[in-house]
Design brief:
The protein is an alpha/beta fold and about 300 residues long. It is about 40% helix and about 15% strand.
Length: about 300
Amino acid sequence: MLHYDEPVYRPPSEGNSLIIQATLGCSHNRCTFCSMYKTKTFRTRTREEVFADIALAAKMQPSTSRVFLADGDALALPTDDLAAILDELATRFSSLERVSCYATPLDLNRKSPEDLNLLREKGLTLLYFGIESGSPDILARIRKGVNPDKLASALDRAHDAGIAVSATVILGLGGRRLWQQHIEGTAALVNRAPPDFLSTLQLRLGPDEAETFVSRFERDGTPFEPQDDLGILEEQHVLLTALNPPRPVVFRSNHASNCLPLAGTLPQDRAALVATIAAARAGAQVLRPEFVRGL
């Protein structure tokens, strides 16, 4: 049996994937909204450690077709090490179809185009990427560590290398006072550097994150007033109305945190998605009950 350094996180769509820990924790680990990896000290694992896990997994699950490289940012590994891991996965699993991992904008921007092209050729075909917001002010308040230009550069690097990106934005990050600049900035960023997949999450702060998040948000005296569901629906409406990406983007708001599940492809399905939101705002569309929402 594989022994993981707990806790282990993975995207919902990787629920059936083999998880191999290439790194432990998150090298940034300062985002005020995030509860992940707070109990871990970041480190990269050696090739020998990772190869040993792969060899054991190959005996236990030889028909594995999908692998997710945990923890928070496998791209922090030197390119040679990551390429060697991808080669080992391809050797051990004859049915391998996809290798994916989380990617921070800092890590993506550190990789050269040649590095990313090599990793794509070796089988790294999907990255999960947190945009969170396209507003420079909101990014600073949540301590994301980058500005919109850095986010756009990272997204463009992945696209140019032919690596698909599944990106997330967080509704509610601006509260009731700053929601408009949050959403307008986010739409502008996505139109500028569209990912292949775009999903929304709805801000949910646990007791361990709430104090830090609010304190950082209010550092200039702007109160943080959480959005209710109607406010979130207005954010979704403005976001989808403003999104007009130059290439198709698969859009989803079906994560368990969202009050209203949506699915479509932008820009062609925008009118239908906006109509669904309008029906929900009018009370005709039932929202997901609070007790079944979560992260």
